Recover the amino acids of this structure.
């Protein structure tokens, strides 16, 4: 009996170490996510799905919004079909795990680009689609005009966001004590605020504007001018796949560059015979920019035809004809005093 | 001598020895379990490495930088994540301990009421049990929160009960103590939900005591109330305690639904921690360990209690 024990106990660690070394050597994945997407025939895109203007299901039953169109642009570049996208609704907390595990190819869900998310969360952030800042919404009749008026008041917010921490930082800096009431669900957060449990609710300004339109009496709510933080909202992909990251990055730059060059979905045909070398290179008439990305040479044409340029997308969902009527501000092109800037296509 | 041939018989093959097979079977089971764990662990490590994430618990010592609405122990956003998690744990324990005490009272009362001779009391207890046992707890919590606590009047003009209990949107106020609406909701929610199950366990336990015991108690001149307290209930406890333990465990674990109504329990604080640090695996392991420890402690205490009420055989 004792002898068997000994034999078996000695084989155990040996087997263990064999198993531990059994896996393939850790290195970068042999196939890029781009190949996976191509062979699948569609893009899987993580969105919020509950945020009018950014990602929501429109009255005709299709996903629409600024975040949604990023995915449609990428699908256009790869498949020349803006509908070759499967959207998955993710909440604030699930979103990073979904990217890390590869459940979604890209996360396009009003996500703030921060250093720790870029590093320890294992994400890679594409260019900023929307420059935002955190703000606080209060009821008009509450008499609250500034952050100091919120002393001792309850402020609702959502977990899984940068908002919680920013609020803590700002109020600590100003020395204002307050009571955070934190929810996991965005709908609960705003419902609780609407019921009056919290005197204020905090989120990104764009989100507050968007959510205010869904409150029972939108005109009774006021968004304070104070900006609590910088919130550059950018799509993200998993770390360690630069081929795929490049496709995502340059699909977004295409949107911005098209606006810079004045090309949009309606006038693109007029640019077909352009003599401008910048335009011909961009539209793939000459050179081989697409090849370097693993895309067809006319990827920019596909994107602009199907989705439009950045300005068109912005106006479609957030512009003067929408309930938000949000001025471009920082989201204007760099040539017009904004921050949107594309590196050169050459 | 002749029938004791196995150990010393040199001719007996190893594979014909039943003890070998017993041992080999157990060894195989352990081996398979170990291999599965090793594969999963190796897979996790490999994938985390690919993403450039080093697993570890060092993040617990960095500054939490978020605020917590309700704290029983001192806490500031400049404290560490471990302190924040401790605050969450204390909040959880507060709900669990108070909840277990209240749910026991509610459950036993309702369980005895189910057997009452009074028709109205009996039916009221039945309605309570059937409603609370047959609707999801999450729904009940949202009901208490949105339909009850948040529809209360504003802080400025609270409802006064008995002169010293004040109810408002800010929660339940007793002289000296204030319970937030989130805490009150969670406490009421899990107490009434678990109480309904306990009521049925208590009823079953009492009915399992044979009729003869009632008759014997009555013939000794004990009134029904006294008979229940001195004769029937102590015997019913033997049947009641094991399933009661499960209900206490359920209550402890269900308290994590706090996340739906914004009560900062350990799970909610851990969610924020996980989100800010991106340490999904470590945080999940940590709260699993915490819930496991709490559950095992409840089990241990209840098992000791169970031993003390069992039939003493001499």
């Amino acid at each position: 009996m004792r002898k068997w024990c000994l034999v078996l106990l000695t084989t155990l660690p040996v087997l263990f170490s064999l198993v531990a070394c059994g896996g393939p050597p850790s290195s970068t994945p042999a196939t890029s996510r781009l190949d996976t997407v191509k062979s699948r025939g569609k893009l899987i895109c993580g969105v919020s799905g509950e945020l009018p203007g950014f990602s929501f299901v429109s009255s005709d039953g299709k996903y629409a919004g600024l975040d949604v169109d990023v995915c449609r642009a990428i699908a256009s570049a790869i498949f020349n079909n803006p509908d070759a996208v499967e959207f998955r609704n993710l909440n604030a907390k699930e979103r990073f795990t979904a990217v890390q595990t590869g459940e979604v190819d890209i996360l396009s869900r009003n996500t703030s680009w921060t250093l720790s998310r870029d590093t320890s969360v294992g994400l890679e952030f594409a260019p900023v689609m929307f420059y935002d800042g955190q703000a606080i919404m209060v009821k008009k009749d509450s008499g609250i005009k500034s952050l100091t008026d919120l002393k001792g008041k309850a402020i609702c917010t959502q977990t899984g966001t940068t908002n919680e921490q920013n609020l803590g930082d700002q109020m600590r800096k100003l020395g204002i004590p307050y009571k955070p009431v934190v929810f996991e669900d965005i709908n609960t957060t705003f419902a609780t605020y609407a019921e009056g449990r919290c005197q204020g609710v905090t989120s990104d300004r764009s989100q507050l504007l968007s959510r205010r339109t869904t409150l029972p009496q939108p005109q009774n709510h006021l968004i304070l001018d104070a900006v609590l933080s910088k919130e550059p909202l950018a799509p993200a992909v998993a770390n360690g796949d630069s081929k795929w990251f490049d496709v995502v990055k340059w699909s977004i730059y295409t949107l911005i560059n098209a606006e810079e060059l004045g090309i949009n979905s309606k006038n693109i045909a007029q640019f077909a015979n352009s003599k401008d070398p910048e335009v011909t290179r961009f539209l793939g008439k000459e050179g081989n920019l697409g090849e370097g990305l693993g895309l067809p040479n006319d990827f920019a044409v596909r994107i602009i035809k199907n989705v439009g340029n950045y300005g068109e997308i912005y106006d479609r969902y957030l512009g003067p004809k929408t309930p938000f009527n949000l001025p471009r501000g920082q989201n204007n092109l760099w040539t017009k005093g904004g921050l949107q800037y594309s590196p050169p296509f050459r | 001598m002749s029938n004791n041939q196995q150990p010393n018989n040199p001719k007996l093959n190893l594979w014909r020895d039943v003890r070998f097979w017993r041992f080999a079977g157990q060894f195989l089971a352990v081996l398979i379990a170990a291999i599965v764990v090793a594969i999963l662990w190796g897979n996790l490590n490999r994938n985390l490495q690919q993403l450039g994430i080093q697993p570890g618990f060092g993040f617990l010592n960095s500054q939490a930088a978020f605020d917590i609405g309700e704290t029983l122990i001192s806490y500031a956003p400049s404290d560490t994540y471990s302190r924040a998690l401790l605050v969450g744990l204390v909040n959880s324990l507060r709900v669990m301990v108070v909840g277990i005490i209240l749910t026991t009272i509610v459950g036993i009362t309702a369980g005895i009421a189910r057997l009452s001779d009074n028709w109205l009391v009996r039916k009221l207890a039945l309605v309570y049990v059937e409603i609370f046992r047959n609707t999801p707890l999450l729904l009940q919590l949202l009901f208490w929160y949105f339909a009850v606590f948040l529809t209360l009047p504003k802080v400025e003009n609270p409802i006064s009960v008995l002169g010293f209990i004040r109810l408002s949107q800010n929660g339940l106020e007793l002289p000296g103590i204030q319970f937030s609406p989130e805490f009150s909701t969670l406490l009421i929610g899990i107490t009434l939900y678990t109480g309904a199950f306990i009521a049925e366990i208590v009823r079953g336990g009492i009915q399992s005591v044979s009729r003869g015991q009632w008759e014997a108690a009555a013939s000794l001149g004990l009134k029904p109330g006294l008979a229940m307290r001195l004769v029937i209930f102590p015997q019913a406890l033997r049947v009641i305690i094991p399933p009661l333990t499960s209900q206490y465990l359920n209550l402890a674990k269900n308290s994590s639904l706090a996340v739906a109504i914004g009560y900062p329990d350990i799970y909610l604080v851990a969610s924020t921690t996980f989100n800010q640090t991106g340490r999904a695996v470590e945080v999940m392991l940590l709260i699993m360990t915490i819930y496991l420890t709490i559950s095992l402690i409840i089990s241990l205490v209840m098992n000791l209690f169970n031993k003390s009420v069992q039939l003493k055989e001499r």
Summary: Chain A is about 40% helix and 15% strand.
